C-alpha cells in the first residue's frame, strides 16, 4: 500500500505532474486528473477555498460530500490524523472491519467512510469536503498519475467526478474538456479510464455495514473479501429520492448521469437467457410506441447482452455497450456521451442487464440516467 511511486521516464509527463501538483499544493484552484474509475476534479481537501472552487466549477450542490483521495496509508496517518508517533502502524487509524478490504483492494476503486479527526489537529479536513457529515469518505486510487499527483502535492485531494453536475461522469480528458472548458486551469490527460464507473462506497462504521454506492468492485467482491463482518452487508437500494429526504449518502438524491437526450431503459426480467420471439415482439411494439409518443426525430440504441444491435430498425444510431459486465462498465458513460454530444440524438434507448455482479453498478447508473423511464421485458 505504501509502495514506491512509479518513475516517469517522460520528461513532459513529469513536468505536467509537477505543475498540477503545484496548483493543488500552493493555490486554491482545481485540476482534473485521471483515475482508474472516472476523471476527478481535484483540489486540496484541507482548504475551504479549493473545495468551494470544486463545487463552483461543477455547479454541484454543496451538501453532497466529496471523496478524499490519498496516495498512501502513511499520508492518511501523517497528514489527515496528524499522527507522526513511532508506534503508528499503517492501519492504526483504519477500523478493523475494513482491514481485509483495504489490504486486498487498495489501491483501487474502493471508498471507505472514516471518522473525522478531531478539530484540535493542525491539518484538519475542510468542513466543506465532508459537507457536515460525521464521517469522511477516503480512497487510494490505483491510477499511477492520480497517486503521483497526490504524493507530489503531498496533499489529500478532494475530488468528485470531473463532469458538470447532473451529466454522465467523464472517462476521457475530452469529456472533461467538453463540460469544464474555461472553468478550470488544467486537465491531466491519462487516456481512457479502465474501470469506467465510480468507486464502490462502503460504510463499515454502522452495524450491519452498508454498501452505499455500487461501483468498480462488486457487492460480491465485498462479501467474499471482507471477511465475516461483511457477510451481513446491506445494500442502499434507493435510486430516486425526493429533495428533502434524508439519505445516508447525499449523492443519491440528485439527478445524475443524465444526457441532454431523454433515456429509456429496457430492463430484462426473469430468464433473459432465452428470449422468445413473442417476448421480443411485445418489447418492440412498446419501444416503437414510446418513440412515436416522444416525437423523437433521432434515436440511438445501445445494446448489451441479449438484444440484437439492430433491434430498433429504421433510422437509428446503433452502438454496442459490450458483452461482459466489465466491458459494459468501461463503455457506458462514453457511449451515452457519444450519442448525446456527437450524434445529437433526442432519445437514447438502452438495454439494461441483470442487477448482479457488475450489473448492480451498471443498473444503478442507468436507472438514474433514465430517471424511471423504464420498460420491463
Ligand atoms: O471513483 C470515484 O469515486 C470518483 C473518482 C474521481 O475517485 N469520485 C466520485 O466522487 O465518484 P463523487 O463526488 O462523484 O461521488 C462521491 C459519493 C457521493 O455519492 C457522496 O454522496 C458519497 O460519495 N460520499 C462522500 N462522502 C460521504 C460521507 N461522508 N458519507 C456518505 N457518503 C459520502
Ligand atoms: Mg459524480
TrEMBL record:
Gene3D superfamilies: DHBP synthase, Threonylcarbamoyl-AMP synthase, C-terminal domain. Its main location: cytoplasm. It is found in: Cytoplasm. It is an enzyme of class 2 (transferase). Its EC number is 2.7.7.87. GO terms for molecular function: ATP binding; double-stranded RNA binding; L-threonylcarbamoyladenylate synthase; tRNA binding. Keywords: ATP-binding, Cytoplasm, Nucleotide-binding, Nucleotidyltransferase, Transferase, tRNA processing. L-threonine binds at residues 37, 69, 139, 159, 199. It catalyses: L-threonine + hydrogencarbonate + ATP = L-threonylcarbamoyladenylate + diphosphate + H2O. ATP binds at residues 60, 64, 135, 161, 169, 213, 257. Residues 14-217 form the YrdC-like domain. Belongs to the SUA5 family. Required for the formation of a threonylcarbamoyl group on adenosine at position 37 (t(6)A37) in tRNAs that read codons beginning with adenine. Likely catalyzes the conversion of L-threonine, HCO(3)(-)/CO(2) and ATP to give threonylcarbamoyl-AMP (TC-AMP) as the acyladenylate intermediate, with the release of diphosphate. Required for normal translation, by ensuring translation fidelity at the level of codon recognition, appropriate translation initiation selection and maintenance of reading frame. Also involved in telomere replication. This is Threonylcarbamoyl-AMP synthase. It comes from Kluyveromyces lactis (strain ATCC 8585 / CBS 2359 / DSM 70799 / NBRC 1267 / NRRL Y-1140 / WM37) (Yeast).
